[in-house]
Amino acid sequence: MGSIVTKLIHNYTDGSGENLQEAWDYVQAQVKCCGWVSYLNWTENTELMNRTSITFPCSCKKSDEDDALMMPQKGFCEVPFGNETQSGNNPKDWPVYQEGCMEKVQGWLQENLGVILGVCVGVAVIELLGMFLSMFLCRRVHSEDYSKVPKY
């Protein structure tokens, strides 16, 4: 999973409505993290690092509790005029969460593993019951005498 996320971060483009990018923006905003291991994963994105002003991933922006209820912003954001430094786009100047998402996502998966497995087992049982019912019906249909039915 880590290689998928790092590839996504590396190829992330501003303004692209790709579903995978939107999903990752949602994860970063809801879990309050940035990047996979740390926010420095975003330094591998050439589009972001080629910016001359301080620009950062919008979904990584540190926010208040009230902002958490809103939909996460997408793409890249610039630091408001007057707050920038003269150092170019230095990641240390980004107003983002420093912690990566890897540990938080893994923790969420471990906490919800029982529910995930329960749903998978439930779906498998329903599918098996459907398969047995269809086999039973097929056997019953073939055992009927259809010689009296007119053939066209």
Name the assembly state.
single chain
Low-confidence sequence ranges: none
What's the β-strand tally?
Answer: 2
- SSE arrangement, N to C: HHHEEHH
Calculate the mean pLDDT score and round it: 86
The CATH architecture of the largest domain can be named as Orthogonal Bundle
Helix content: 40-55%
Strand content: under 5%
Sheet with the most strands, sense and barrel status: 2 strands, antiparallel
Widest sheet: strand order?
Answer: 1-2
Number of helical regions = 5
**Cα gyration radius (Å):** 26 Å
3D structure, described in words:
It is a single chain. By secondary structure, the chain is mainly α. The chain has two domains: 2-109, Tetraspanin (Cd81 Antigen, Extracellular Domain, Chain: A); 115-143. The protein has five helices and two strands, in the order αααββαα. The protein has helices spanning 2-11, 19-31, 46-49, 102-111, 113-143, and strands spanning 55-57, 76-78. The radius of gyration is 26 Å and the shape is elongated. The mean pLDDT is 86. The chain crosses the membrane at residues 113-138.
